[in-house]
Design goal:
about 325 residues; alpha/beta; TIM Barrel; 9-stranded parallel beta sheet; about 45% helix; globular; binds flavin mononucleotide
């Protein structure tokens, strides 16, 4: 059997360029950007525009979020121009700001607009156009099968289903049965997402859903080599302290000094599972000077299991 593709999930505030470059050290699998707002991009908001600095990245899928067809087409064309290998439309985000303007998960309640967006982007670019969605708005409206069928008819090349409703957010049971029903009904590839955190959960989700591929989100936090562990792709040994320092450097180059603040959550994730994590976080959070933070990182990770290693299989 061919190995299923394992996508790293779009995560706002997390799969920024620095984290993607760290992920790319380990995997050749497709990586999603964080969602990029099409309206703010259209009106040249500098931070959003910066998110499209992707020309140097390989196998990248740009995720767009919004509702206006004109902005969606413009954003997709730009992403294509800068080298995106796919465009994904966010039809699952539960954040209030998006819901109130009819985008994100709200599109599950507006199949006609959702399909129009897919059709428009398909016409605009020559790369695959996919959608990431959920099982439905809430338990009383689990409409993902019909919704995904309509998207397929509109021309979508792939659908990823996070097996939770909008109301569930990021907690509660993942409905793998429903992902399987989507897979049974669609001809295009269906990707299963939700609570895949290691090889055994990946095998189990694949067996339950029969999906064509998997998508991993939160499992990657502090563990950017996870995709390799899941699909048995070897990767070279490395010092964890060096990886964390490299990630911090990338954050500083991308965000400037503010990168020190943005990096904090990643530092905490890298420290997860290690004794002394709380103390480490307290020290890092209190420090404003880069070289001191670097020293705290070195001291903390050097004293602990300092590398992850996977031999060639
Ligand atoms: C902090 C955070 C940000 C997220 N941002 C996005 C996003 O920008 N676009 C999107 O489609 N999903 C987003 N998601 C959802 C994830 O892509 C994924 O569907 C969800 O976390 C379930 O997968 P997991 O259990 O592997 O984490 C986000 C999730 C988290 C936790």
């Amino acid at each position: 059997m061919q190995k299923p593709i394992i996508y790293s999930a779009p995560m706002a505030g997390i799969t920024d360029k620095p984290f993607r470059l760290i992920l790319r050290k380990f995997t050749n699998q497709p990586i999603y950007t964080e969602m990029i707002g099409i309206a703010t991009l259209f009106f040249n908001h500098p931070q959003t525009r910066k998110m499209l600095q992707i020309s140097d990245e390989k196998n990248l899928i740009v995720q767009l979020v919004g509702i206006e067809e004109k902005y969606m087409v413009s954003a997709a064309k730009e992403a294509y121009f800068y080298g995106a290998k796919g465009i994904d439309i966010n039809m699952g985000c539960p954040v209030k700001k998006l819901i109130t303007n009819g985008s994100g998960a709200s599109l599950m309640k507006d199949t006609a607009t959702a399909c129009r967006l897919v059709e428009a982007v398909k016409k605009a670019v020559d790369i695959p156009v996919s959608v990431k969605t959920r099982t439905g708005w809430d338990e009383t409206s689990l409409n993902v099968v019909d919704f995904a069928l309509a998207l397929e008819t509109a021309g979508a090349d792939r659908v990823t289903v996070h097996g939770r409703t909008k109301t569930q957010g990021y907690g509660g049971a993942v409905n793998y049965d429903l992902i399987r029903k989507v897979k049974e009904q669609l001809k295009i590839p269906v990707i299963a997402n939700g609570d895949i955190v290691d090889k055994s959960s990946a095998i189990s989700v694949l067996a339950k859903t029969k999906a064509d591929g998997l998508m991993v989100g939160r499992g990657l936090l502090g563990k950017p080599w996870l995709l390799n562990e899941i699909d048995d792709t070897p990767f070279p040994s490395f010092m964890l302290s060096e990886l964390v320092l490299e990630h911090l450097d990338l954050m500083l180059s991308y965000y400037g000094l503010h990168g020190l603040m943005v990096a904090r959550k990643h530092l905490a994730w890298y420290a997860s599972g290690f004794e002394g994590k709380a103390d480490f976080c307290n020290q890092v959070y209190a420090e404003k000077e880069v070289d001191k933070v670097q020293k705290i990182i070195k001291d903390f990770f050097n004293k602990r299991i300092s590398y992850q290693k996977k031999e060639t299989i």
